[in-house]
Design brief:
Length: 194
């Protein structure tokens, strides 16, 4: 997982602010973890309608908590041809800031393998964090900064009911960073899906 190259001067301040913002307020109750359990059952059973229902409930609860408009959701069986995200790894979701639509899909593009639940949830939290960037924090772009990945991980671990994990970063060329997974996993819990 890599961070984006920092943008030019005009957007630099927002980028740096996103990079510095390493945590996210979390609900004090257990509603999101409870809903996440249902998402897990539905993903594992490959029941798309149940996945959609549980994920929609998650988005409603989370959007109310963060005081942002609820985003809409589409759960697809397989990866669509046209996608917006620009991950360097295989993609499992995207977010359109104009329509506030999250799309997640349950099968990989190439081999049509079922997305693991951890990857599915991590993608889902990732896309919701894009929504927060635009609707809560007022960024006019939603960069993949270190802070963005940290916020995503905070939400993911809350939803999973797993202890938050400290992320370790390795600098790359072009002012980019990548997560040092071996070090991150050694220091934290045993879950490597974020
Ligand atoms: Zn993204």
């Amino acid at each position: 997982m890599f961070t984006d190259t920092p943008p030019g001067k005009a957007n630099r301040a927002g980028f740096l602010e996103s990079d510095r913002m390493k945590t996210l307020d979390l609900p004090k109750d257990g509603r999101l973890p409870a809903i996440t359990k249902r998402i897990e059952e539905a993903v594992k059973a490959e029941k798309g309608a149940d996945v959609r229902r549980a994920c929609t409930e998650f988005l409603d609860v989370a959007s109310t908590f963060y005081d942002v408009p609820t985003c809409s959701l589409r759960v697809l069986a397989a990866r669509p041809l046209r996608i917006r995200e620009s991950w360097t790894t295989e993609l499992f979701g995207d977010y359109d800031p104009e329509t506030m639509l999250i799309r997640v899909w349950m099968r990989t593009a190439v081999r049509k393998e079922v997305t693991s639940f951890g990857t599915f949830l991590s993608t889902f939290c990732h896309e919701f964090c894009h929504h927060l960037d635009y609707q809560k924090f007022g960024f006019h772009d939603s960069w993949h900064t270190r802070g963005f990945y940290e916020r995503t991980a905070v939400l993911y671990h809350h939803a999973q009911g797993t202890p938050p994990k400290k992320l370790f970063w390795v600098p790359m060329s072009g002012e980019r960073w990548r997560i040092d997974w071996p070090r991150t996993n050694r220091s934290g819990s045993n879950d490597s899906a974020v």
